[in-house]
Amino acid sequence: DVKVTQSSRYLVKRTGEKVFLECVQDMDHENMFWYRQDPGLGLRLIYFSYDVKMKEKGDIPEGYSVSREKKERFSLILESASTNQTSMYLCASSFFGQPNTEAFFGQGTRLTVV
Amino acid sequence: DQQVKQNSPSLSVQEGRISILNCDYTNSMFDYFLWYKKYPAEGPTFLISISSIKDKNEDGRFTVFLNKSAKHLSLHIVPSQPGDSAVYFCAASAHQAGTALIFGKGTTLSVSS
Lengths: 114, 113
Known about the structure:
The complex is a heterodimer. Chain A is mainly β. In chain A, the strands form 2 sheets. In chain A, strands 2, 4, 5, 6, 9, 10 and 11 form a 7-stranded mixed beta sheet that branches. In chain A, strands 1-3-8-7 form a 4-stranded antiparallel beta sheet, with no helix packed on it. Chain A is globular, with a radius of gyration of 13 Å. In chain A, a hairpin with a 2-residue loop joins strand 7 and strand 8. In chain A, about 0% of the residues lie in helices and about 55% in strands. Chain A starts with a strand and ends with a strand. Chain B is mainly β. Chain B has no helices and 11 strands. In chain B, the strands form 2 sheets. In chain B, strands 2, 4, 5, 9, 10 and 11 form a 6-stranded mixed beta sheet that branches. Chain B has a 5-stranded antiparallel beta sheet with strand order 1-3-8-7-6, with no helix packed on it. The interface of A and B includes residues 48, 94, 97, 102 and 106 of A.
């Protein structure tokens, strides 16, 4: 059974803190993604990676960075958390270069910044 | 500018009837389209997909139709069931290595019994 696991379901952090969201997949997928979901805005792409140490900016990368040191792990970093980063964060993975492949999602991390 | 648009935020349908969810896209490079279903506090799960070389794909109660000339796709659920109540996201991608799925804003489907 395919699995994308996010390290936390719920997180509460203070403004200005550095926050790490971790994601691990066990499907040997090359592609990994971070999205955030907000009411009325759908799923917006923050960053994605198609190989170890490679990263590409998505639609809303400001205030975020990522790290991909190993194929199975993709970390999202909030350098200095702000209240407008309160959101549901979703990690996903997929195979690289195959046209007919879907992305598999983790269960999500609900982050609240106070 | 939104590349994938779901213009109906919500849809209410009675159990047993057909649910039709619509999606429009603007990028001609998109060649693969997917529908995801999402329950609250869970990650989205893949439902059905269609390649741009087809105009229809069916899987049980779910059928996706693609009209390339109109840049429009729709998801039909027949018959609708209360367990289908969820947020449905349309997504699209281009057949290039390393490209990500682009999602619409979602449509909340409510199926009443």
